[in-house]
Amino acid sequence: MRTHNSGKSSLGALVMAPIHFLMGILDAPLRWLQRATGIGGMAAFFLMPNMLIFGIFVLLPFFINFAYSMTGGTALFLPDRTFVGAGQYARLFDCRSYLDPGSCAEDTFWTAVKNTAWFVVLQVTLMILVSLVTALILNRDLAARSFWRAVFFFPVLLSPVVVGLIWKWILQRQGLLNFGLYGLGFDPHVWLNDRNWAFAATIGVSIWAHMGFYTLILLAGLQAIPKDLYEAAEMDGTRPARAFWRITLPLLMPNLLVVVVLVLIRAVQIFDEVYVLTGGGPGTSTLYLTQYIYETGFAAQLRNPGLAAAASILMGAVLVVLTLLQLGLGRSEKKGGRK
Amino acid sequence: MSGIVRFLTRRRGGKGWHWTDIVTWAWLIGGLLVMFGPAVWLVGSSFKSPAALAEFPPTILPYVTQKVTVEGYDKPLDLYEATLEDGSTAVLAEVRRIGVVSQMVDPKDPGEIVKVNIAKRTPVREMSFATDNYTEPFTHFDFVRYLWNSVFVTVTATLITLVVNSMAAFALSKYEFRGRTMAMLLILATLMVPLSVIMVPLYSIVSALGLFNNLWGVILPTVATPTGVFILRQYMLTIPDELVDAARMDKASEWQIYWRIILPLTAPALAVLAIFSVVWRWNDFLWPLIVLSRKELYTLQVGLSIYSGELNVQWHFILAMTVVTMIPVVLVFIFLQRFITTGIAGTGLK
Q1: Which class would CATH give A91-336?
Q2: What integer pLDDT is reported at residue B347 of this predicted model?
Q3: CB < 8 Å to B158, chain A
Q4: Taking CB atoms and an 8 Å limit, are A158 and B208 in contact across chains?
């Protein structure tokens, strides 16, 4: 595949020549295929590679995940594993009190569930607020708007590992934050060694990294609202706050719902930045579900793929419920929208 | 200058300052600092020597203590500005330090040793960019290997993504067949099956195919992106079917129609997908972390996370490597940001 690189850019005939050559060679056998199978067969041919990859790497794992979650032992391949029925689920749910992770057989799982739940609630709320305010501000009559939009969008493209390292460096003992506080007369603090600050840092950093993306979607929604609605409201002497609640928010609802779904789904699966920033620590204070699954399935001394599979199915179920809930809300919103 | 002042004091419709104007500008300036500040600080830090990195309070610009070679001493000595007993100050080189007393010599007259309390001397510093941080990892950390692995994965996966996704999009937009809607729904449904939900069985499948500890094991599961099929199909739907029919009249084969007619017309959408794909694959972390366990196969992201998680983090190297890892993405951001933002705003997909 690498011989004819960057066919996507127009680097001129020199680059295109080998591609044309390759595609030309493929033409003869494909003509033969077309004669043999007809045009319908060609449709299947075009669809095939994509569906094959989906089948092998998405659908197949999706279905055998259920089988995995019902087996035990440390063997990797399914036929070598012993059937334990609902044993893994029973182990995950073996708790004296669900509110106290310490009373559970799988206490790290419940710690991860509790941490993730708090993370989702706080991060999603703050993320929506921050993105919405930013989108409203960017939607104003600003000089150099595309520059300001770029400012907030910039971290979205950074890799989660880079994001994690940037902030790990800022929150170091001799980092920028302590430097700033030192200037104001405070003592330096090792932020990531403090359970609460580390937790807050994971929320703040994930908002910093992704808010630009959601701001963009909300901004597109705001710009689609006809300006004459606001002019009419102003003519009627409507106060700006009322215009916001009565015009902006209802008309922004479709985009807002999309954003809420996306933020929720991503928050439940949070992993990369946090893994680099805190590694789940200190202790287990920033251990979230995906990291629990990763460590149980791959990184722990005693790997337990069955338990990891069961936990991942529970997480998948939560994601499906959240999505359906939002889809349902979106529909009722549309029905009840015309008042 | 007057332009800047006018720009800064622009008001809503020529009226006076409204409280929302103040909030707006506070938010924007604050955003500028919070968004760019950390990255700029990282880049600045990456040019500091290990000694300067360990300092608190840190300096904004990279400084090192000036050194001087003095006759009679093998190693270059640190230069200090010392306050002498008679109250005068002199620039002296430190020979050794014993307790709180520093033994110093005058670089021009190295015969006589002067004893100075360490509280009474300050280092003479000069600005210096520690470019070693950038050059050394190339020999030190298999850094070139990681860079190459990342480039290989990114380029290969993007090319395959473009071919495979555009073929599927072509089938789904220009052919009528039973199960077409079904296939489209199936593809979109895979959006709902994230890696974190299927990573255990996916790992066993990739291992069974012999792709564990193999860069192709990183590439193949990622290339059939539902987002890509969706973007390309939406775009191909806008290409009139008459073009396809006319080509068939002229005895063009279906394959020729795909790559001679449809693909060139889809170029803008392909460009958007290519940009997305490069950023996705360059930034991928969890899956390469699972599939690659041999050091020489690490991608940049995996290598960085492993080295930064060590007990004794060599921050001066990590920072420089992080900056190098940022470069392609920053280039994409500077030159292609417009494509990405319109792509996101148009589809709501990332």
Answers
A1: mainly alpha
A2: 56
A3: 8
A4: no
**A187 vs B25, residue with greater confidence:** B25
Q: Is residue A203 pLDDT above 50, yes or no?
A: yes
Mutation target vs B (from A47, A184, A215; most B CBs, 10 A cutoff): A47
Q: Is the pLDDT of residue B140 over 90?
A: no
- According to CATH, the superfamily of the domain at B134-347 is MetI-like (1.10.3720.10)
Which of B34, B165, B344 is opposite residue A50, by nearest beta carbon? B165
Q: Which two tokens stand for residue A5?
A: 């690189």
* Chain A interface mutation, best of B196, B262, B278, B315, highest count of A Cβ atoms under 10 Å: B196
What are the sequence ranges of the domains in chain B? 2-45, 63-127, 134-347
Q: Which residue in this structure is represented by tokens 């360059």? A: B282
- Longest Cα separation, chain A: 81
In tens, the pLDDT along A304-337 reads 888 889 999 999 999 888 888 777 776 665 554 4
pLDDT of residue A339: 35
Cα distance from B6 to chain A (closest Cα, Å)? 11
Q: Identify whether the C-beta of residue B103 lies closer than 8 Å to the C-beta of residue B95.
A: yes
Closest CA to A59 of B281, B208, B221, B170: B221
Q: Residue A162 — φ and ψ, nearest 5°?
A: -65, -45
Prior bond to A305 cis, omega within 30?
no
| Cα separation, A294 vs A291, whole angstroms | 5
**Same fold flag, B63-127 and B134-347:** no
Strand stretches in A35-159, DSSP E: 71-72, 82-83
Rounded distance between C-alpha atoms, residue A282 and residue A272, angstroms: 17
Cα distances from A260 to residues A139, A217, A267, B271, B342, in angstroms, run 20, 11, 10, 28, 20
Q: Is the dihedral of CA A301, A306, A309, A314 positive or negative?
A: negative
A57:B202 CB<8 A: yes
Q: Which residues neighbour B168 within 8 Å (Cβ) at sequence distance 6 or greater? A: A46, A47, A49, A50, A51, B187, B224, B229, B233
**Distance of alpha carbon A267 from alpha carbon A202, whole angstroms:** 11
Query: Looking at the complex, does the CB of residue B327 fall below 8 Å from at least one CB of chain A?
Result: no
Does B240 lie at the interface with A, CB-CB under 8 angstroms? no
To the nearest whole number, what is the mean pLDDT of chain B? 82
**Rounded to 5°, angle at Cα A266 from B27 and B269:** 85
| Interchain CB distance below 8 Å, A208 and B35 | yes
CB atoms within 10 A of CB B306: 12
To probe the interface with A, which of B24, B29, B198 has the most A CB atoms within 10 Å?
B198
Determine whether the interchain pair A174/B309 forms a contact, defined as Cβ–Cβ distance below 8 Å: no
Query: Domain extents for chain A?
Result: 2-68, 91-336
In whole angstroms, give the CA distance from residue B255 to residue A34: 9
What single letter denotes the amino acid at residue A264? L
Averaged pLDDT, B270-292:
90
**Range B158-176 average pLDDT:** 92
Q: Can you tell me the distance from the alpha carbon of B44 to that of B129, in angstroms, rounded to the nearest whole number?
A: 9
pLDDT tens digits, one per residue of A2-60: 444 444 445 566 767 787 788 888 888 888 888 888 888 888 899 999 999 999 998 89
CB-closest option in A167, A265, A308 to B38 = A167
CATH number of B63-127: 2.30.30
